[in-house]
Design goal:
heterodimer, A: alpha/beta, 8-stranded mixed sheet, two-stranded antiparallel ribbon, B: alpha/beta, Urease, subunit C, domain 1, TIM Barrel, 9-stranded mixed sheet, 8-stranded parallel sheet, 14 helices, 22 strands, globular
Amino acid sequence: MKGDKNMERIGFWGKGCIGKSALIANLATALTRQGRHVLQVGNDCSLGSTRLLRRYAKITPLLPVYRREYHADVRSLIGTSADGVYYLELGGNESGIGCLSRSLELTDQMLKDQGVDDALKLDYIFYDSTFEDACAGVMVPVRNKLFDRCILFSDGTISSLVSANSALGAIRHFDAEGRQEPDEKGEGRVQLIGTRVPDAAAQTILKEYASRAQLELLASFPLEETLTREEAQRRVVQPEEADAEAFAELARRLEAQPQRRLLHPVERPQLIDWLEAEEEARNA
Amino acid sequence: MLDIALNNGRLIDPAAGIDKTASIGFQNGRVKIISDLPLNGRQVFDVRGRIVCPGFIDVHGHIDGHRYGGQLDLLQGITTTIGGNCGFSPSHVDQFLEQQNQNGFVINQAELVGESATLREAVGIIDPYVPADDRSIELMSTIAREKLEKGAAGVSLGLDYAPGSCQKELLAMARLCAEYHRLLAVHTRMTTCFDLNSLYELLNLAQETGTRLLISHYVYQYHAGGVRPGLEIIRKAREAGLDVYLDSGMYVSWTTGVHTATYDERNLHDNEMRFEDMVVATGEYTGCRMTREIYEKIRASREESSVIYLEGAENDPQVWECLMPAYAMPSTDSMEYRPGEGHPQIAGSFPRYLRQMVREQGLLDWPEAIRKATILPAQTARIRERGSLQPGWKADAVVFDPQSIKDNARYPHLGRPDAVPGGIDCVFVNGRLAADHGQCTGETAGEVVFYTK
């Protein structure tokens, strides 16, 4: 177990196809190599979150079992990567039926009720969630305070930054609800990670956004080549490879608990105007 | 001599497989005889051209001993109501039952133990968004067990009103219901209008414990997006052997207390609920569309106010679809209001069910519609000797005109929500004439349904 800390639940939020799940898998692996016990939970109907961890091993997702049997033995559905990362896929919804709003909470409840977090001596549960816009349904686990911390992802593009900012707005909104004291409004433990950030210009935008939103930029990787290769080969970075240290450093930084701080999502029209102006200037 | 004789009616008693012209006699509160010939008695009614059937049983009400609500139930043909639903019940259900038994009531009553509001409050849980801890669960279980020992009908959950409830807490209640062979009635937890995990978490309870599950006012919960997939989920669960039923009302627009979590600002925001779609159902603003000013005033007031949320079309076919499965039964969700206040469900539900689903839409025939309103709820809630007019059973009966039975109740901004229905000639409770052509007779022959282990 993590020293004197309790297990931490981290919600990772980002739009699809920006290398989020691959980065999370590498982060979970780096933490495991440093002696932590990590469970990565994917909530993607393609079972894509844990691809790099399980490689070609088959996995049975939890929610279809739960929907079919009205019960699921969660431990029996958890796999272990070559490096010792635990992983679980939820499997998403049936097409056009129901909504995923409470899937993460149901899963977390099952992990707790069935004693899985204790049995695996988990230090972290990583909940990997893909979304485009932070509607109330998507953000129900945030509203219901499931996570101890949220980490947003962006590759510096307009779409991913607007999505991340949307999640930040939702986190702020849910924290501010019901609070009476003005100085308590809209706080949270939220950090930002840049992934597959293509060039220096995108890095600059990401840093500028983090500054405007007063977010801690935990790391900002290019990693395009690394993540593309890994995804093609379905494997995480090996300890002897050049990028392994970058993930090890990210893991160490993750272990430092962020303080709750006031959140400052950027007004959406202003954000889009700014990002489009930057893009226009670059292209000119 | 018979106390009551109802002669020459169309007697429909689905539990006994009867649908024929016959006469029926009551004596000492029970059915004495069914005859092909007219009968003599102290009071004789010629009910030619009318349907005579068992009194309706409402598995989902909040009457809880309130007189006017009970009268409105009676006038729509309900002779037995199950109260204490949605997690709200009298604090001491056992004392309530004893008191009602002594005082008498206009109709028969069974009572559930409410968990989500009443028991949680009893053990000091005030915040509906927090789960009960182990100690609270143990305390609530002890209280619930005591009430079940003393005759309560089961346990009710109102998960929308305690969204923080954890599965462990729910399992404890489900285990008790399974142990006592009582009903677990659940108003589901909807985090969004498409949330079907709200059903799976209940099916988990049924699967883990074997409890009998009644999903409450189904159309109110799922009309915005989940009616058909939800029914499919329940169908499969029943096929898999789970003991699951549902009740559903005849309206889409629903009502609840303005102080509940449902009308919390956060829920309004998350579900994009608009003031202009709300109508105040009680108090000085009855019939008014909601405004920010009224909302803040009635939320700040200590007086509990009901607010109707207007949704869907007047004759939304989803209402009927919810009631088509063989295991589905009509319900009212009725509660106590002052005259002129409330939601039309309090006075119109069962006549509307018969008018629309049998006479106008032809979706059900009379025997099936009556089965779903009588013996099905009796069997679901394990109410003995009611729901059928077999000799020896309790003489709860309704006499109505199949050509003219209809609801007259309207939403409070359109008319009277408590308008008495038409076409119901007589309602008998335990063999006594309790309602006569839309008027209560003053009889308080209703009994308490005590459950024993």
